[in-house]
Amino acid sequence: MSDKNEFDLFREMMSDVDPIEQDKVETQPASHQPTEAQLARQQAAQKLADSDPEYLSLDYATMVKPDEVMAYKRAGVQEGVFRKLRLGKYDIHARLDLHKMSLEKARDEILRFLKQCQRMDIRTVVIVHGKGERSNPPAMMKSYVCQWLQQISDVLCYHSALRHQGGSGALYVMLKKSQEKKLETRERHLSRRA
């Protein structure tokens, strides 16, 4: 079949089809306008991020039991590293005791302590929060501390300590390496390859 015959055949088949007439053409899609509530939330989030990137709430925490064993591991932390932390196999070079502190004071102390530890290249610490059996509600400090540690980006993982180091009233906490230590480790590995 020749090209002319195909074209004629196509015309014949389409002879009873009427073209669609369209008088409106959208040249640009309508841009999304955020609502006032969305703008207010965005401004509040920016203020919070600008004032304190490690903002830790005093308003609410998921409550835990005084004797409950606590564990948290950020994605990417190796199972072997977490198991070693859980078993207390890492040397502890710093300790923070939160007994008799208010929640606000404890929050500030945790941030100060962890930042100081990271500056000093201390990676594994113990934070003693107590079981809180007599607090109202029970285990209030423990609940807040566990929630705060999950919100702090420099905390890789934590686990309740062994009995002789505080048991369920204390946490082993592992911190990320400082940038200087990361660079030092990278250089050491590169020099081995050479």
UniProtKB/TrEMBL annotation:
Pfam families: Smr. Residues 1-14 have a biased composition (Basic and acidic residues). Keywords: Endonuclease, Hydrolase, Nuclease. Residues 96-176 form the Smr domain. GO terms for molecular function: endonuclease activity. Coiled coil: none annotated. PANTHER family: DNA ENDONUCLEASE SMRA-RELATED. This is DNA endonuclease SmrA. The gene is smrA.
